Amino acid sequence: MKNLKLIFFLSISSVLGNLENRIIKGIKAKEGELPSSVAIYMNGNLKCGGTIIDEIHIITAAHCCQQLSPKELTVLTGANDLSSWLPKSYGVSQIYIHEDYINSGSFENDIAILSLSENIYFNSVTKAIKLPTQETPENTNLTLSGWGKTKDSNGKNDLPTDLMKLETKIISNSLCKKWLLREINDSQICTFISNGQGACTGDSGGGLVDGNTLVGVASWIAGKKGCATGYPDVFTRVYSFVPWITKILNN
């Protein structure tokens, strides 16, 4: 998966152009299993993931879109295999980055909405996801998905063409703070399943879902030696931003 910010335990790296999020030790998603998942391309290259929330809007991470113009981005929907003829391509007409997004420290408010240039064609493999109506409790099992790298390396061949998924679990913010020795605010969610499994470069912006409900947006990962090294992954908590999302959609 692409463009998750990789934050190392002793130093912060925010080189968005070079990092690509991925899912480590995930499995291939079945066709149509995650119909709201989309791939976001920048100038022809996979940049991030995103999630369909209605017929014309995509939620992703703010750091995926920062300092970019709409014409640089393309959204692909409707297929798990990006190398096939099945994905449908959409242009982007507008980028809405949260006005309080902070591109440093704990990367607060790391959320953005893309408005597409035309309505999405919905079918059995392309659908919108629901926004949360309540907080998601600790220990809830969730699904992370994306097209990011499947190994923590610099090899281009580690980028899958198939959508990958991983079952993970919410941990408390207090535990996450102690684990990472970093500030985690109430508008963020941490997940962890086991050492050697998790998000990585290329997965940024992708959805963390509970069935047909969008719970989180992949934001950043931590570790001394790279991805999936025994530290929690950090997501933007979508429930905290429902009023902001609704305002953008209504406008």
Automatic annotation (TrEMBL):
<dbReference type="GO" id="GO:0006508">
    <property type="term" value="P:proteolysis"/>
</dbReference>
<keyword id="KW-0720">Serine protease</keyword>
<dbReference type="InterPro" id="IPR009003">
    <property type="entry name" value="Peptidase_S1_PA"/>
</dbReference>
<keyword id="KW-0645">Protease</keyword>
<keyword id="KW-1015">Disulfide bond</keyword>
<dbReference type="Pfam" id="PF00089">
    <property type="entry name" value="Trypsin"/>
</dbReference>
<dbReference type="InterPro" id="IPR001314">
    <property type="entry name" value="Peptidase_S1A"/>
</dbReference>
<dbReference type="InterPro" id="IPR043504">
    <property type="entry name" value="Peptidase_S1_PA_chymotrypsin"/>
</dbReference>
<keyword id="KW-0378">Hydrolase</keyword>
<dbReference type="InterPro" id="IPR050430">
    <property type="entry name" value="Peptidase_S1"/>
</dbReference>
<protein>
    <recommendedName>
        <fullName>Peptidase S1 domain-containing protein</fullName>
    </recommendedName>
</protein>
<dbReference type="GO" id="GO:0004252">
    <property type="term" value="F:serine-type endopeptidase activity"/>
</dbReference>
<keyword id="KW-0732">Signal</keyword>
<feature type="domain" description="Peptidase S1">
    <location>
        <begin position="23"/>
        <end position="250"/>
    </location>
</feature>
<dbReference type="InterPro" id="IPR001254">
    <property type="entry name" value="Trypsin_dom"/>
</dbReference>
<feature type="signal peptide">
    <location>
        <begin position="1"/>
        <end position="17"/>
    </location>
</feature>
<dbReference type="GO" id="GO:0005576">
    <property type="term" value="C:extracellular region"/>
</dbReference>
<dbReference type="InterPro" id="IPR018114">
    <property type="entry name" value="TRYPSIN_HIS"/>
</dbReference>
<comment type="similarity">
    <text>Belongs to the peptidase S1 family.</text>
</comment>
